[in-house]
Amino acid sequence: MADEELEALRRQRLAELQAKHGDSSADPLQQEAKQREAEIRNTILAQVLDQAARARLSNLALVKPDKAKAVENYLIQMARYGQLPGKITEQVLIEILEKASQQTEKTTTVKFNRRKVLDSDEEDDY
C-alpha cells in the first residue's frame, strides 16, 4: 500500500514539474492542438498574402518573432472579419509593418551619471 501511494505521489510531482516547465512532450493532445493551430494560421496567411509578402513576413519572423506574430495576428483578425479586399502585396505589408513600428516605437534615452571623484595630486608624487 505504501508503494502505491509513493508511486502516485511521484506521478503527481512529475506532472506538476512538467506543467511548471511547460514540457509539452508529455501531452500529445496538447502538442497536436498546437500543430493544428499553426496549420490553420499558415493556411489563412497563405490565402491572405502573396508570395513576396509571405517571404518578407517569414524573414521578419527570423529577426523579430514577437513583431511578426503581432502582424500575423492582425492580418488573421482582419481576414476573419472580412476587412481585407484581396491578397496583400509586399508593398501593403510594408505599410502595415511601418504602422506597427510607429505604434510600438520606443524612445531611447541615455543618462550619464558622472561620479565626482576627489583626485588629489599629492598621492602621485611618491
UniProtKB/TrEMBL annotation:
Coiled coil: none annotated. One of its GO terms (cellular component) is cytosol. SUPFAM superfamilies: Double-stranded DNA-binding domain. Pfam families: dsDNA_bind. InterPro entries: PDCD5-like, PDCD5-like_sf. GO terms for biological process: apoptotic process. GO terms for molecular function: DNA binding. Keywords: Acetylation, Apoptosis, Phosphoprotein. Belongs to the PDCD5 family. May function in the process of apoptosis. This is Programmed cell death protein 5.
